[in-house]
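Q: Make up one entry.
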Amino acid sequence: RMAHFMCYPFLHSIPDTTWKGKPFTYEGRFRSVQNIQVVPQPLQHPVPLYISVFSPPTLEWAAQQGYNVILAPFAAAANFGDMEGTLAHYREVAEKSGYSNLDARCSYFVYVIDENESVDAQQQEAVEAMIRYFRTTAQDFPQGEVPEHMKYWLALRERLSSITPEMLNTNSVIFGTPSFCVDQFKRVEAAGISHVICYFDFGGLPKQRVERNIHLFAEKVMPAFEAQRG
């Protein structure tokens, strides 16, 4: 079974012996860890590492180091305009640093509309839940005086705290009928994303709606990508 690790940047210092069971200690400028051990042990070597990316500096650092990335579309849209622009910049920096064929993945909030019910009512439900989620989450972001490298969080906090329905688009969410969702995931695939993490439960959606969302996705969206599944 393949394992993939989403890592904080300091983990690039982990020696190969750690992935094979040896304890690891790290003393850095911002983080220190003592005697950590990776369990269970990965079967494959080298171990694929993914850096979770929110800011332009982290994106560029990951590209320069030759690391795969996992992107948050709403952050990508805020910093680069859209997913395509984000990926283009990542691959350009990686190529200049001598790295090619790096893997990029992302996450999306997904709401598959049941066409047997009111489309408008479901769309409104999804948008209201998403706004609740973003506005609530933004309160946990840094505020006030922050170091220079964290100032992008201030803009992101402000953007999400005042988000409106008009600001929700396919740069950050995928809400719609099954055919619409298929088209959007095809667009994401064409941009160079290999895997997508889907969030179906957000903003206090009713349990029944979340379950139906998942079932509709499995029944009407996933089959369009069966050929790519290993």
User: Anything to note?
Assistant: The CA atoms of residues 182 and 222 lie 8 Å apart. The chain has seven helices and eight strands. Confidence is low (pLDDT under 50) at residues 1-9. Helices lie at 56-65, 73-80, 83-96, 119-138, 151-161, 178-191, 207-221.
